[in-house]
Amino acid sequence: MKTKLYAGVAALALTAGAAQAQDLVFTPGEDDRFDWGSFDAFAAEHDLSGETLSISGPWIGGDAELVNSVLAYFAEATGTEVNYTGSDSFEQDIVISLQSGTAPNVAVFPQPGLASDMAGRGFLAPLGEDVGDWVSDNYAAGDSWVDLGTFEGPEGEEDLYGFFYKVDVKSLVWYSPAAFDEMGYDIPQSLDELRGLTQQMVDDGVTPWCIGLGSGAATGWPATDWVEDMMLRLHEPEVYDQWVNNEIPFDDPRVVEAIEAFGWFARNDAFVDGGAEAVATTDFRDSPAGLFGFPPDCYMHKQASFIPTFFPEGSEYGLDYDFFYFPADAEADLGNPVLGAGTLFAITDDSPAARALMDFLRTPIAHEIWMGQQGFLTPYTEVNTEAYGNDSLRAMGEILLEATTFRFDASDLMPGEIGAGAFWTGMVDYVSGADAGEVATTIQERWDSMR
Questions:
Q1: Residues forming CATH 3.40.190.10 domain(s) in the chain
Q2: Which of 80, 86, 95, 360 sits most deeply, having the most CB atoms within 10 A of its CB?
């Protein structure tokens, strides 16, 4: 079993001898965007020469190279030999390794639900109250991150088991700045203004939205993001949490209200490119193409931070496309809620090097090294946002830092049969014309049948 896990895809061993300055992506002290003082201070306090640290996570290919570029600084500072193994079947592999007693020192979980299950079975080590206090004080919406990483242990006690590092933002609306400028449209600052802009576009003879739910066997998931964002904009975050945990039913009037708030946009033929019936059948990867037509087929597209991967080749941020924060409901007075996802580090085989890594993740340099490259966002308020490798990441990072509440994707937290099953199919039924209340009741009945 160990061979399967540690000879895995894109594994890279970084020894203290190999992690010389010339192997680091940024030479310490030479780029003033980075907090080299935090690197030097960490190195002065941690000497782990001769120690080995094994880490398993979901990052492979280019992402594995990026996380290894950060771990190289940990190796350089401490003298630790670091072995990271990435796998595209991490969720299955980590459970097998934990059950067989071959766990790495640290595991990087992409879903809190799996980490929570492992904590409840006694496979994770608590990180300590000091780590929780640090997260609360140093992360934007810090209490949200503490709550997301806090699980029940094997005796039913609650402790912080997960440290979030590398975050994705979903509360984004993409648009063409040239098209907005030509039509004289302003960026909406509230949910009411977004609805008003949608109607104004129709009155001007153009189509506001491109929406596509198609995703093969996962068709429907983009609609769940819409509903989750609406839940955070219409109701207190505690209501969102109760919904995720099935403490209020799926057909609670507040959940139905959020579904119908999504439907206001998606079920109006005039609001969506191709009409409402195209929403369920348009592939989410193809959906944003309408932004890039001349004239555009649509003027707005709601999707997470990864969507530029599917934009036309050669598209430039700030010129061909831009994004704005999916605005909150001003009347609800709920601040700036942000929906997203992320990865959390957890200790699965305790050791001094594992504890030192958790200390390292609390330094600005551990975040800024990845920030300075690509594909990384952090809620850490003490980082230098100028360290971001491009303007797009910097703008997303600012949205994350301005968040008053952060909540993890609800469908990823719900049982798989619901979040990755009944919720997806229910949203397809809804955009195809089914009643929101009836769809919600069907989903709840499925959830009840699992008890």
A1: 2-169+339-408, 172-333+415-449
A2: 80
* Distances from the Cα of 224 to the Cα of 17, 218, 219, 253, 439, angstroms: 48, 11, 10, 17, 13
Amino acid at 290: G
Both structure tokens of 264:
């206001």
Q: Is the pLDDT of residue 370 over 50?
A: yes
Task: Tell me how far apart the alpha carbons of residues 441 and 447 are, in angstroms, rounded to a whole number.
Answer: 10
Task: Look up the pTM and report it.
Answer: 0.86
C-alpha 271: how far from chain center: 28
Nearest Cα neighbor of 75 from 59, 58, 51, 56 is: 51
pLDDT in tens, 392-445: 999 999 999 999 999 999 998 998 899 989 999 999 999 999 999 999 999 999
**Confidence band, pLDDT 50/70/90 cuts, at residue 3:** very low
Class of domain 172-333+415-449: alpha beta
Strand, coil or helix: what is 399? helix
The CATH code belonging to domain 2-169+339-408 is 3.40.190.10
Helices (H), 61-151: 61-78, 90-100, 112-120, 129-138, 142-148
Burial class (CB in 10 A: 0-12, 13-18, 19+), 433: exposed
pLDDT in tens, 269-322: 999 999 999 999 999 999 999 999 989 999 999 999 989 989 999 999 999 999
